[in-house]
Mycothiol acetyltransferase
Amino acid sequence: MRPLSEEAELRLQHGGPPGGRDVLAPAPDGGLAGYARFEAATGGADAEAELVVAPGARRRGVGRALLTRLEELAGGRPLRVWAHGDLPGSAELARSRGYTRARVLLQMRRELAGVAAQPRPRLAEGVTVRTFRPGRDEQAWLRANARAFAHHPEQGGWTAEDLRLREAEPWFDPDGFFLAWDGDRLLGSHWTKVHPPGDVGPEPVGEVYVLGVDPDAQGTGVGRALTDVGLAHLRARGLREVLLYVEEDNAAAVALYGRSGFRRHAVDVSWRRAP
């Protein structure tokens, strides 16, 4: 399980919106016992944070001290804190401070052995699938992504800078980024990712990184076709496993992925407290 989200790692490297803070808990040996990333609230939104404590420093008050500092930074605003991995210690600390479970993000995985190596997607006449063209497709993708994830708390708000940062990452591969077009209209996309050994497991693991379909194109088979093409690409890379993330309360999506061979693997929990 990764200790921080990709977003927190990117902001640690490159900074983020005004008001963000990195909170460190030093260890006696000069190392790091714990870390938290704080994002200030904007408008009427909650302040948000992530918190992680080194395994050897747990049950020593480090998490409690970091959480206290996050609450000070939040001031009178409600605070949401992500815990990666539904660990008993995290739940115990959160509940003792008056937090309740606000969101649960499932990581689901499946083997790639049963994936068709040469998919034959069924597409409507005039619809084609091709790979992303850096420097040309950014604006079309951002518009389509915003429509596909209009009600998603993070994904739907991606900016050109969010996309640029990921295009600059070592893992970015346009050959694994598939777009479905009807003429000059982008219907949907499947952006895959490959995690290197040691990132989310001892071996490389693929990811359904962003899979989105324009609301007007839902129910046309575009999503299924993009899924098949992306999984076939990951299998062709020699990977044996693929993961994805989905909200636990999205029962329809969880059931759909379950029918597609995905199984629950890990859990991230967002804890919320309103002062």
User: Anything to note?
Assistant: The radius of gyration is 20 Å.
